[in-house]
C-alpha cells in the first residue's frame, strides 16, 4: 500500500533516490531472522571471550618423510602375488615401482569384489555341507522380437524411437520410411 502511494506520486519519486523492492514472505522472514540473529549476537557477545588461536605452532613439525612404507607394502604385495617368498632383507630397501609390469586380468576373467567372492564361497560351502548343488547365476536373456524371433539389437536390424519398436525384417521398409509414416 505504501509502495503504491510512493510509486504513484511523481513528486516523491523525483525528489528521492529511494528504491522500493517487491517484498514477499520469504524476503521478510529472511530480513527478520537476520535482524534477530544480530540482536542475539549483540546481547551475548559481551559475555563470551574471543578465542584467538596462535598462528605459529609451539613445537616444530616432524621432518618430511617419503612414502617409503607404502612403496614397500606395494612391492611386497606384488612380489608375494607373482613369485616365491622373498627374504625380508631384500625388501628392506625401497624397490622402484615405476615402470614395473602391472598384472592385468585376462579378458575372460570377470573381476569380482572380495566381499562378493567371500559371500559366494560361504554360500557354496553351506550348500555343499547340506549336500545341495549351489545354483549359479543365470546370464540375463536378450529381449527377442515377437515378429522375427531375433534379438532386439541393431545388429539384427532393430531400433526404437520413444515407445515404438522397428523390425526391418518384418516390415520390409527401412527405419526412416517407417518413422516418417508413423509421425506424419
UniProtKB/TrEMBL annotation:
<protein>
    <submittedName>
        <fullName>Uncharacterized protein</fullName>
    </submittedName>
</protein>
Amino acid at each position: 500500500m505504501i509502495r503504491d502511494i510512493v510509486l504513484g506520486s511523481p513528486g516523491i519519486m523525483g525528489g528521492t533516490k529511494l528504491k522500493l523492492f517487491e517484498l514477499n514472505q520469504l524476503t521478510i522472514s529472511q530480513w527478520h531472522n537476520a535482524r534477530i540473529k544480530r540482536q542475539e549476537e549483540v546481547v551475548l557477545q559481551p559475555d563470551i571471550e574471543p578465542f584467538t588461536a596462535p598462528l605459529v605452532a609451539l613445537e616444530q613439525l616432524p621432518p618430511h618423510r617419503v612414502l617409503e612404507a607404502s612403496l614397500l607394502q606395494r612391492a611386497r604385495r606384488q612380489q608375494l602375488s607373482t613369485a616365491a617368498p622373498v627374504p625380508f632383507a631384500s625388501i628392506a630397501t625401497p624397490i622402484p615401482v615405476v615402470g614395473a609390469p602391472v598384472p592385468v586380468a585376462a579378458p575372460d576373467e570377470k573381476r569380482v569384489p572380495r566381499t562378493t567372492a567371500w559371500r559366494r564361497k560361504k554360500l557354496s560351502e553351506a550348500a555343499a555341507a547340506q549336500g545341495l548343488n549351489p545354483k549359479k547365476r543365470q546370464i540375463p536373456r536378450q529381449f527377442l522380437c515377437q515378429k522375427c524371433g531375433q534379438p532386439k539389437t541393431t545388429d539384427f536390424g532393430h531400433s526404437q524411437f520413444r515407445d515404438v519398436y522397428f523390425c526391418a525384417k518384418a516390415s520390409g521398409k527401412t527405419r526412416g520410411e517407417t518413422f516418417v509414416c508413423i509421425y506424419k
